[in-house]
Write a structure and sequence with these properties.
Structural class: alpha/beta
CATH topology of the largest domain: D-Maltodextrin-Binding Protein, domain 2
CATH class of the largest domain: Alpha Beta
Distance between the termini: 29 Å
CATH architecture of the largest domain: 3-Layer(aba) Sandwich
Oligomer: single chain
Radius of gyration: 20 Å
Strand order of the largest sheet: 2-1-3-10-4-11
Strand content: 15-25%
Number of helices: 11
CATH superfamily of the largest domain: Periplasmic binding protein-like II
Shape: globular
Order of helices and strands: HEHEHEHEEEHEHEHEEHHHEH
Largest sheet: 6 strands, mixed
Number of strands: 11
Helix content: 25-40%
Length: 307
């Protein structure tokens, strides 16, 4: 099964040296401003239930405030495009993006950087699901996605990496375009909504990120008598934190190093930190770089989702 490009050893060394040694050559904002005098505002794409997101990022903001010694506020957003726009304008300094939205945001802000991802985001997957009355049987090869042709099908958000971009790319490898579905494809707006729509039979099939499916299925929140996974995609890089250049410029780069340490140092033996890891569905956070998302950018341009 195909495996998309991963970070080379040289890329890892370069990323770590940049983050640990401080950076130069990009916009740095006001380097005379002390991090202790200025807070930051974080955000995230709204890919899950709003109440769950509020709980997750409220806990994270409190933790980061303590670790960084500055006020950290979480600003909820209405949709994926809003997250990108608020990052571009500087209203959000640091955002948890999917692969596609992260690339879209970075291309609009000179000097923006992908800095952190969960360990699972190195090899992320989407799952195609189908209603058991759809006639679609589970399969293991990409070519099996041809079974989606002629079906009522829903993606997640239009800008979702795992709920739209990569699934559409893999469908194309099987010779299926959105014009081949029965009627126009749906866009549910979130991974949770995709499950619910297929479960109810509103759509015969759909696609979402594997992590959300597994979490909801294990919690007993999916009617597996009505809906099942029929295909798991090849892997790709997905979710990651992107920072604006003014954060890198604070205290000669030390502030960004503090942010990286706050995430990579999360300890599951600490109750609060364990809760953050659990809410993110992560065992750990690791350093990443813009390089890891070159494949996402290429596919985004090919599909017209990145201009």
């Amino acid at each position: 099964m195909m495996k998309l490009a991963r970070l080379s050893v040289l890329g890892v060394i370069t990323s770590l040296s940049v983050l640990v040694g401080g950076c130069a050559g990009s916009p740095a904002g006001d380097e005379g401003t002390s991090a202790a005098e200025e807070g930051i505002t974080i955000g995230a794409i709204p890919d899950q239930d709003p109440e769950q997101l509020q709980r997750l990022y409220g806990t994270l903001a409190g933790y980061l405030s303590d670790e960084l010694g500055v006020p950290v506020d979480y600003e909820p957003v209405t949709d994926y495009n809003a997250a990108v726009n608020l990052f571009r304008s500087g209203d959000l300094n640091m955002v948890w993006f999917g692969g596609l939205t992260g690339v879209q945001a970075r291309l609009q802000v000179d000097g923006a950087e992908a800095v952190l991802q969960r360990g699972i985001d190195e090899e992320f997957r989407s799952v195609f699901i189908a209603h058991r009355d759809s006639g679609i049987e589970p399969f293991e090869a990409i070519e099996g996605l041809s079974a989606m042709a002629g079906k009522r099908f829903t993606f997640g958000s239009e800008s979702s990496t795992s709920g739209r971009l990569m699934p559409q790319y893999f469908l194309g490898d099987a010779g299926v375009t959105p014009d081949d579905f029965q009627g126009q494809p749906g866009f549910s707006g979130s991974h949770h909504a995709t499950i619910e729509l297929v479960e109810a039979g509103t759509f015969e099939a759909g696609v979402l990120n594997e992590q959300v499916w597994e979490a909801r299925a294990q919690a007993g929140e999916v009617d597996t008598d009505a809906v099942e996974v029929v295909f798991r995609t090849p892997t790709y890089h997905d979710y990651h934190w992107v920072v604006r250049p003014e954060l890198r410029g604070r205290e000669g780069g030390d502030f960004l190093k503090q942010i990286v340490r706050a995430f990579t140092g999360l300890d599951a033996s600490n109750q609060t930190e364990a809760q953050i890891l659990e809410l993110f569905g992560a065992e750990e956070f690791i350093v990443t770089s813009n390089h890891n998302y070159a494949e996402i950018e290429r596919i985004g341009r090919e599909t017209g989702l990145i201009n």
